[in-house]
């Protein structure tokens, strides 16, 4: 009996001596289904199983995770669109993309069929609403690629003018995220049959969105942690795809949003993550080069040359 007690105490002390590595993620927006894979990886214990104590800090309009991971010890990972990561890298921010989670564009153009807009040439002379900054690049690239001359106007986040047909206020064609504003249009009474979607990826203008980033310094000093985080994150996203209902339950532990809206957001995101045998984390080099050229044409890149070989690091190979 005494031997068993002593053995148990020694085992307990041994386990206590093996501490998980602490690290954190800054997502680029408030907690929502957009980040479901990370939540699932925490709740299902995937990070812990690989020796990582992983936390998530929500973002918002004033946060900048890319800059934060180069300055903070608390947050070592950040999510950002590919275009955003490339812009910062071109301006000297020492970051690396270690997983391209969202490989496709989910920022799309939408028109009401009643406006008699069914193809790009119908947009000539029409108002197209776009969001400022990096969000404008996919739209401006499409306009340039399709050789049309619309009236580009900066768009707000209120969808009601479009729902009500007040196109003078917002535009006959507007920008929406497939997993967010598009669902808002439907929630406000529009029908899918009323709308036509123009997705950049359907016109060979794909802009991959959320990727996972670390600083070059953190990767060089903590490669095993980065590998573990990427592995666990992919497990988390695979769980989300395979278990949508439970994944939504997990999302609602973090999000303050409406469950129905979060559920629609989750479904839209899952549809846009192509799955073969398992979730892929690789950045497509063709997409990288296309986005790079588009950013150069839009004047967003800095003077630092960015190359695929140094911008993306497949830490799992």
Helical element count? 15
Strand and helix order = HEHHEHEHEEEHEHHEHEEHHHHHH
Low-confidence runs (pLDDT<50, min 5 residues)?
Answer: 1-18
Write down the Rg: 22 Å
Helix content: 40-55%
CATH superfamily of the largest domain: Periplasmic binding protein-like II
Rough shape?
Answer: globular
The domain tally reads 2
Assigned CATH class of the largest domain: Alpha Beta
Structural class: alpha/beta
Q: Any idea what the CATH architecture of the largest domain is? A: 3-Layer(aba) Sandwich
DSSP strand tally: 10
Q: Main sheet: which strands, in order across?
A: 2-1-3-10-4
Strand count, sense and closure of the main sheet? 5 strands, mixed
β-strand percent reads 15-25%
CATH topology of the largest domain: D-Maltodextrin-Binding Protein, domain 2
- How confident overall, as mean pLDDT? 92
Could you describe the 3D structure shown?
With 317 residues, the chain is an alpha/beta fold. The protein folds into two domains: 188 residues, D-Maltodextrin-Binding Protein, domain 2; 97 residues, D-Maltodextrin-Binding Protein, domain 2 (3-Layer(aba) Sandwich). It has 15 helices and ten strands. The strands form three sheets. The chain has a five-stranded mixed sheet. Strands 8-5-9 form a three-stranded antiparallel sheet, with no helix packed on it. The protein has a two-stranded parallel sheet with strand order 6-7. The protein is globular, with a radius of gyration of 22 Å. The N terminus is likely disordered.
